[in-house]
Amino acid sequence: KAPPIVTWQPTVHFISSSYELDHNMALRHAYAGVLVVLAGTYAKECAPLVLPNSNRTASAPCTGDEGSSCQFECSPGFTPVGSRLVCQNYTTKSGVNVLNRKFWGARCERLCSGTAPGCDQGQVPVRWNSTDANGPCFAMKCHTESDALEKLTVGAWQPWRLVRHPKTGIYAGTSDNTVGPEGQSDRAHIGINGVGLMFECVADAMGWQTRSEAQERVKVTLSALAGELPGFKLARQESDGWIPTFFNRSTGAALGRGPQVYTTLDTGLNSAGCLFAKTYFTSTSAAKDTTPEEIAATAEIARLATKVFHLVNFTNLLCTPNGKVAPNGVNGVAIPFTFQDDGTCGALHFPRDDGYYDYSELHYTVWLSYHQTCGNVPLGKCGNPSIEKMWTKWQGRRMSPDVNWTDTTTGKTYDLLSMWSSYIVQLPFYATHSFNSDPYWTQLFANHFAADLAYYRGNAFFAGDRGRFGIAAGFTDRWCSAKNSGYEADMLVQSGSRQDTPGAQGCKIYSPYAIAGYLPSSPSFVKGQLLDLLADGESVLPVEGGFILLRKSLIEPEWNQNNQVSMVDFASELFGLSAMALSTDFWVNNTNHAWTE
């Protein structure tokens, strides 16, 4: 029998068939090189937990080993919040042991005075953080299921109205949902302007604004991007029209110091949004334009969107092996993330040994390059063999994915496009017809969703229920960040890989907007998860006309991002919710451009 253990910090290694007494006084016996711990449940046992305001009292505490779940019921006047209450251990990248073999996760939170514990049959609860005379509490209102989801969809539109400049129509890259329009940042993000134009189309289709109002808003934004708005001049690369990622939304002036860097990635997303607006307003003109003024406005939107698209020479996307622009793609092989004014290319993507490019959100830029150069001709008929070859090598990846992730709990392996966050497949899905209409790309989109859920349900998070999953990018708390940053792109981490280090899960963030973005993959399941998040309330923020769901930390429940939301990441919330309200075909049809100009 092993001696009693007071403290246990396990050291796992291989030993020969012998007995060993280590510094923790744990007696071990190994057979055939496999370590066997004889200390029984002492090794990973959590301290008994008395969960406040629940039936888990001193006479019936939560007990168990690491990975064990504890069931509980909240006392009257309190509501359960969270996914699971699990015995776990976690140390951040900075070395803070925030969970030292303790039960953590779900908990009981106080309902505000006078709040009913639940809703009548046929209704669902929506809760949110509030206060009353006794301090912090959860307020609640009951809705029908459809009304709750409608208010979530309307709410997801409000931050986009908030960050749009009233004169230039340019969108800020972040929103502060605690102040009004006058308190928003002047730091614009070019990719977000394309997404903002897409959502103006959503607002028109949903009837949130009149046709003429939507047209006017889109025309102002496109006029600014096209260089036709007095007092606003958007910074562009002089030779090929590429745009910097960040610029002043009042003037269009580039932000930053040193040699100007231009983004191919976000210039592409902006152009994709402009073309989306053109296709949407043109295709709905016969049904929705009821006056000569509205017909003329649609024609103007089409003209401006076409101009913005052609202000960028996407045919000059490719670079030579030594990092210089390859005019018309001739001798070009690498796809860059950035350009400079002198024609220098940055962050080059070369084809891999199998002949295909690694996948990234550059998908929309590569797609635009092919169609601007080759029009709508089938492969093999393009007049520019270099650009056609680039597109073939890009498209080939969907049939030969070179990334996979294995769920060590079930042993199931998922073929993926990347270990990076959900945005890497969600932005191209909603922005490009080549992705959302292709069965190979959409299957990989579904694989990313399944792997995301499995990752959170495993022992890296002990979550995954009631909407506690969603790998995304966004703001985070620096002290527990995996990358020592206040903004972080979370990622899948394979157990046992070199990335699988202490604190690899950062602040253990879950992102509801990532869940919403996957709605086309599993509509009924995702809808249920969103309703669970609304019922729990910790990620809910009331806004004008409804509410939104924001990122939260599983290890730091009090943290929120209410005053700092990155719009390029939050976009997935309205992407998915609009697909639920308007159908996925709304996105498939309005990314199917004519390519005839």
Properties at a glance:
single chain, 597 residues, alpha+beta, three-stranded antiparallel beta sheet, 15 helices, 18% strand
Radius of gyration, Cα only, in angstroms? 26 Å
Class based on secondary structure composition and strand pairing: alpha+beta
Largest sheet geometry: 3 strands, antiparallel
Overall shape:
globular
The number of E-state strands comes to 22
| End-to-end Cα distance | 82 Å
Task: Walk me through what this model shows.
This protein has 597 residues and is an alpha+beta fold. Helices cover 32% and strands 18% of the residues. It is built from 15 helices and 22 strands. It has helices spanning 145-163, 190-206, 211-225, 264-283, 285-288, 292-310, 363-374, 385-395, 423-431, 433-436, 439-457, 512-517, 523-536, 567-582, 585-590, and strands at residues 19-21, 27-31, 34-37, 78-91, 97-110, 124-132, 135-143, 174-175, 187-189, 246-248, 261-263, 335-340, 345-349, 403-406, 413-416, 473-475, 487-489, 509-510, 540-543, 546-549, 552-553, 565-566. A three-stranded antiparallel sheet has the order 1-2-3, with no helix packed on it. Strand 14 and strand 15 (413-416) form a beta hairpin. It is globular and about 80 Å long. Mean pLDDT is 92; it is low at 1-42.
